[in-house]
Amino acid sequence: MRPEPELLLETRRFRVVRHAQQLADGSLHTRETVVHPGAVVIVALAGPRQVVLIRNYRIAVDEELLELPAGTIDPGEDPLATARRELAEETGYRAAEFRRLTEFWVSPGILSERMHLFLATGLQPGPAALEKGEQIRPLVVDWDEALQMIDQQKIRDAKTLAGLLYYDRLMKQ
Question: Is residue 1 part of a domain?
């Protein structure tokens, strides 16, 4: 039987816990992980070959990054509802249609965050509603320009790389 994790830190969005795992040789190994409720990332198409990115200041890396709109799932919230909410909050756009594309683990060696990737189409502009402390500016770019930004290492955010490249692969099938 696996021992219960030990809570080390609890914040508004995540917990840090210490897990104990019994290895095949009978020894006990401990590891700390971040327990996260999950998040969404949205490939939002403003036109047939245009994608909505955001310029987002990230305090953890002290840089403004180019990203796809994304956000953390609130307790009890369906990922689709999160995608609708986050797209509107961060960009002002509302989408007529959402399609779930895939899901993936962000960094499973240390983090339980599962990322749900959505495609949003039929966008209509509106006012953004940023959360306190968010420094986000939307940016609409041509699809080929977004891919060039990857090649030029202007896009370095993992969820954005995964989302853009996954959708690009789907378009070519």
Answer: no
Does this model's pTM top 0.85? My answer is yes
In the structure encoding, which two tokens stand for residue 145, read together? Answer: 């320009």
Unique residue bearing structure tokens 């039987």: 1
- Please check whether residues 97 and 71 belong to one and the same domain: yes
- In whole angstroms, what is the distance from residue 50 CA to residue 70 CA? 17
Q: How far apart are CA 36 and CA 17, in angstroms?
A: 11
pLDDT digits (tens, 9 = 90+) for 69-128: 999 999 999 999 999 999 999 999 999 999 999 999 999 999 999 999 999 999 999 988
Beta bridge partners, 137, equal: 55
**Interatomic CA distance for residues 27 and 72, integer angstroms:** 36
> Range of 101's domain?
39-171
Distance CA 153, CA 22 (A): 41
* DSSP state string for 99-152: EEEEEEES-TTTB-PEEEEEEEEEEE-----PPTT--EEEEEEEHHHHHHHHHT
